[in-house]
Design a protein that fits this description.
Order of helices and strands: HEEHHHHHHEHHEHEEEHHEHEEHE
Radius of gyration: 25 Å
Strand content: 15-25%
Distance between the termini: 19 Å
Helix content: 40-55%
Number of strands: 11
Largest sheet: 4 strands, antiparallel
Oligomer: single chain
Structural class: alpha+beta
């Protein structure tokens, strides 16, 4: 009832604003017609605006042109864009309830790192986006939302994923016996989803749709186009592209099908817990030899609470830095006394690790440091930190067939599958109404 009342109030405000604007415009010039932004969908207590839909459609269209990809019909593309924006709205609302925030400083650091990856300064990166017709401020806020969404997703799925020591041992044993460990496969994926707790009729209908899609593909239809039109998978707007994966990184059902097959082969429909999958082996290559960087760092974590505000937590950590710089305190001793992380007993020492395994804000902070430099206080999904980089080294990633690698492969595999199930559960619990052609869902 409260949600409906809030929505009615929002609608009334929009109506009053619209009336006032049109009246004012009519007085200025009857010949000028101005269309105001409208609501495209209601998602719980929030909305998806038509301007957001059009912005994402333009972005996908621009990217498709750059990659020489064909696009589905305008209606099919709009449906996929709406699905993504609805999912994003649900995740952002969850993030708000969880208190997940990305500060301007964190956002600027992330964008600066993206610029460095492209061998550009931040200003050059901004100019390049503008030259491509991208509104930089919108891009910046979109990046902030993606960071928030990523943190919410990781925090939510971390609790749902369990990997037993036996699973790790089994994968390590399999790796030692494999002759294709140095082969990578690029896969395309189309998911024909059926509802939660499906009846036999739902399963039959999904299978029939999947077989029709398979028939179109076997007749030569473009896989990317059909994925964007028909897939319910998270990568639908990317044409179903799952990227390059080793045999151990993909779901077992897929790996058993594509191993040893020729590129261009199409498989399916494959029954999973979410629906029916159709997989295309887009390409095969020898695994790339990649050197990875590991960092050794220490940190002090302070978690804000009802008693300790965000500002006070940040100020407390800045005080620690001032004492360290003045020679009045030692980083490790301060960590032992004050840090709320599990590493406090080790003086905050995190040991050697790949930066990608850390919270993005933490990884970005370490990326900007020189050896023995301390980063100013910054916020992650865990709380406020100061971090000290104590070492940096480069390793051959292809030689790392160890327990940590096996665990990460299993985690990534389960993360992707569980992520699809998680967003489906969130949607089932949400109120969603698409305000176009009188359709609701």
């Amino acid at each position: 009832m409260r949600r409906n009342l809030r929505y009615m109030k929002n609608s009334l405000k929009l109506l009053l604003l619209s009336t006032l604007f049109m009246f004012s415009s009519a007085q200025q010039s009857l010949a000028n017609e101005v269309e105001l932004d409208r609501i495209a969908a209601v998602v719980n207590s929030g909305v998806v605006l038509e301007s957001e839909v059009q912005d994402l459609i333009e972005s996908v269209t621009l990217q498709a042109k750059k990659n020489n990809q064909t696009l589905p019909s305008d209606r099919a593309l709009r449906i996929q864009v709406m699905e993504k924006l609805i999912n994003d709205a649900i995740i952002m609302q969850l993030g708000e309830r969880m208190g997940v925030q990305i500060s301007d400083a964190q956002l600027d650091e992330t964008l600066a790192n993206m610029a460095r990856e492209n061998n550009l300064t931040l200003d050059q990166f901004r100019q390049a986006l503008i030259a491509d017709g991208v509104d930089y401020e919108k891009y910046r806020e979109s990046a902030r939302n993606e960071l928030i969404s990523g943190e919410v997703r990781r925090a939510s799925l971390r609790r749902r994923i369990y990997i037993s020591p036996q699973e790790v041992a089994n994968l390590l044993a399999a790796m030692k016996e494999q002759t294709n460990a140095d082969v990578e496969y690029r896969l395309g994926h189309i998911l024909i989803e059926f509802p939660t707790n499906p009846k036999q009729a739902d399963i039959n209908a999904a299978k029939e749709r999947a077989e029709k899609v398979l028939e179109l593909l076997n007749e030569g239809s473009d896989f990317t186009n059909i994925a964007m039109t028909s897939s319910s998978g998270a990568n639908a707007l990317q044409g179903g592209d799952l990227g390059w994966k080793t045999i151990n990184e993909m779901p077992t059902l897929f790996s058993e099908l594509v191993d040893g097959q020729a590129k261009g082969s199409i498989f399916g429909p494959i029954r999973t817990g979410l629906g029916f999958s159709i997989v295309k082996l887009v390409d095969v290559r020898g695994r790339q030899t990649v050197e990875i960087e590991e960092v050794k760092a220490s940190h002090i974590l302070i978690k804000p609470s009802i008693i300790l505000s965000e500002a006070k937590a940040e100020a407390l950590l800045q005080g620690f830095i001032d004492k360290i710089n003045a020679g009045e305190a030692d980083f490790a001793e301060l960590a032992k006394e004050h840090s709320e992380g599990p590493t406090s007993v080790r003086g905050g020492d995190l040991g050697w690790s790949e930066p990608s395994k850390y919270d993005p804000a933490f990884a970005d902070a370490l990326a900007s440091l020189d050896i023995n430099e301390i980063h100013k206080p910054f916020r992650s999904s865990f709380g406020w930190h100061i971090a000290k980089l104590t070492g940096r080294r480069t390793l051959d990633a292809t030689a790392q067939m160890n327990e940590n690698r096996a665990y990460q492969l299993l985690y990534n595999r389960k993360f992707n599958m569980e992520g699809t199930r998680w967003i489906k559960e969130l949607r089932d619990e949400a109120y969603i109404e698409v305000l176009e052609s009188g359709n609701s869902k």
